[in-house]
Design brief:
5-stranded antiparallel beta sheet, 2 domains, single chain, 8% helix, Chitinase A, domain 3, binds zinc ion, 39% strand, Thrombin, subunit H
Length: 159
């Protein structure tokens, strides 16, 4: 069975950047399960997996435009240290913040005695993504799964 729209797909994957640093991996855990063609994965991954079958091993290179988007420097803001009160603020911490564009997750990228720099970009925005993928299983989605927009059963939602 080939991967196409509305198939439930299980994959193991390892994600590296262009420097070869591993950013994420499913190895050692359960495979990632998703429904193809409904926007669950980034577009570059769904395009790379389309037509593949169980047992296929492949490399998928995803440009930011087909991944987590380009970086938007307007989402980088410097805010007064005092805005965080007595909180111990450190680089890498993530917060929900009210911004002009609604509630966003921001990451602290710099801390000085007087100010804190936060970045509202997705951590992988602007990053070239290099996936090594193995297709573990492909099956038809059930009507319930399609109605809910997610996978049911082991590896998915149990309800
Ligand atoms: Zn459900």
């Amino acid at each position: 069975m080939q991967i196409s729209k509305n198939k439930v797909v299980s994959i193991h994957y390892t994600l590296k950047d262009n420097e070869g640093t591993t950013l994420d991996s499913s190895l050692g855990g359960e495979p990632l399960m998703y429904i193809q063609g409904i926007g669950s994965l980034i577009p570059g991954m769904e395009e790379g997996l389309e037509g593949k079958v169980k047992g296929d091993k492949l490399q998928i290179h995803v440009k930011p435009e087909k991944g987590y988007g380009l970086r938007d420097e307007r989402l980088v803001q410097e805010v007064p240290r005092s805005a965080f009160g007595n909180q111990d603020v450190q680089v890498g911490m993530r917060f929900r913040a009210e911004t002009g564009a609604g509630v966003q997750i921001v990451t602290v990228t710099e801390v000085s005695p007087d100010s804190v720099t936060v970045d509202g970009n997705h951590p992988l925005a602007g990053v070239d993504l290099n996936f090594t993928v193995e297709v573990m299983d492909v099956r038809n989605a059930t009507p319930d799964e399609l109605a809910h927009g997610h996978v049911h059963g082991p590896g998915g939602y149990e309800h």
